[in-house]
Amino acid sequence: MKTPINFKTINNLAIPATIAGIAEPILSITDTAIVGNIPQDGMESLAAAGIVGSFLSMLIWILGQTRSAISAILSQYLGAGKLERVKTLPAQAIFLNILLSIVILLSTVFIVEEIFVLLNASGKILELCISYYSIRVWGFPLTLFVFAVMGIFRGLQNTYYPMLIAITGAVLNIVLDFILVYGVEGIVSPMYLEGAAWASLIAQGIMAVMAFVLLITKTNISLALKFPLHPELGRLVVMSLNLFVRALALNIALILAVREATALGDKYIGAHTIAINLWLFSAFFIDGYGAAGNIMGGKLLGAKNYDGLWELAKKIMLYGFVISLILAAVGFLFYRPIGSIFSNDISVLQTFYSIFFILILGIPMNMVAFVFDGLFKGLGEMKYLRNVLLVATFLGFVPMLFLGKFLGWGLYGIWIAFTLWMFIRGGALVWKFRRKFRPLLQNV
To answer: Mapping DSSP to helix (H, G, I), strand (E, B) and coil, where does residue 185 land?
Structure first.
């Protein structure tokens, strides 16, 4: 199946995927900015939102890996011209994932306090974490359902509908944030941090309904659960489990960073919350080209078009590099106004400004890891992605994090550990891609 590898084809997938991808960090950034400026308990609310957000992101990323597995399998069958053979697979995968998410939800909701005590939350921050999480956690199965539907659309080479879903959720969340957090005089009383949680939950519900309607009306994929189990379900589960372990290692790094920042004090976790949200925003912004690599890479592999696959890798790297330079330049020029959006506390802002340069300098290097990460998911290389994350986390990030703690580097040590982490991830993926696919090229 012939797939053109050019600027238009790549960006027709990458631009909507970028918009859809940045919707999630925009939600977190909006919550962070609005919560950080709450007139009462602003610093504590910002810290609680950061701690809870990191924990929820861990759960979503760990259990949301079915999205990438579904996308990879569908795109490979599409490239091979055999899509009809896997039409019953998505429904089985979604039901399995949602069932697991409900089990996880019910097992965490009764030990909320213990979870956040482990993350070093205490006093007022702990109280706010519990109230915030107790509302937001119910959106967890909804988000996983939306992720799975987005994976189906990606496998079908469509990033437009996921973009519509994401934009709707982001805009709705922002509007509801202002209404529910600050209130509307004479109509809605201010709910502060709990208002941000309700805004997110309502937006997630609307996104789930929208995803369901679009899948039913715009594709031939059925959500009716049919038996027997599809033969590819086993491969999908193995791929998902590899990504599950990978996401667990990834989130161990993120959670350890939050824990160490929390232990440093309120202003440090406040500054880290701002920095990690901006880091995630840049990641998802660049990840649009990783998504294009995911979508097109699986299709090209299914068609055994290795020359096209090599050309795709070169072009998404080039486009991703340009975007990363633009993001770094914007961050360098506007880092003070950017910081003031999120907090009005001088101690938090000064701490944030002191480490922001590390984040900026790392953006182009991070791009390599994010772009190839997406490409490898499309190729079904989940086992290698798992191993890379395990090595990068436990032989790179964790030793550097605790070395920085031992040497008293404070927040600098946390972000130096992030930089080493990304360097290992990106370098290992580039090496593997060249080693595996260069010998297969016909036109070297």
So the answer is: coil
Q: How far apart are CA 34 and CA 38, in angstroms?
A: 7
Give the rounded distance of the alpha carbon of 177 from its chain centre: 21
Spell out the alpha helix ranges (H) of 88-232. Answer: 89-108, 112-118, 123-136, 140-155, 160-177, 193-218
CA distance linking residue 159 with residue 12, whole number of Å: 8
The reported pLDDT for the residue numbered 410 is 93
**Of 260, 329, 341, 283, which is closest to residue 29 (Cα–Cα)?**
341
pLDDT of res. 3: 61
pLDDT tens track for 91-118: 998 888 788 888 888 888 788 889 888 8
Q: Which residues pair with 188 in a beta bridge?
A: 184
Which phi and psi (to 5°) does residue 38 adopt?
A: -60, 135
Q: Can you give the pLDDT at residue 24?
A: 66
Q: How far is CA 260 from the centre of its chain?
A: 21
Distance CA 208, CA 210 (A): 5
Number of H helices, E strands in the chain: 16, 0
Q: In this structure, is the dihedral angle defined by the CA atoms of residues 81, 86, 91 and 96, taken in order, positive or negative?
A: negative
Among the residue ranges 25-29, 40-44, 54-58, 283-287, the one predicted with the least confidence is 25-29
Distance CA 193, CA 52 (A): 11
What mean pLDDT comes out for the span 421-438? 95
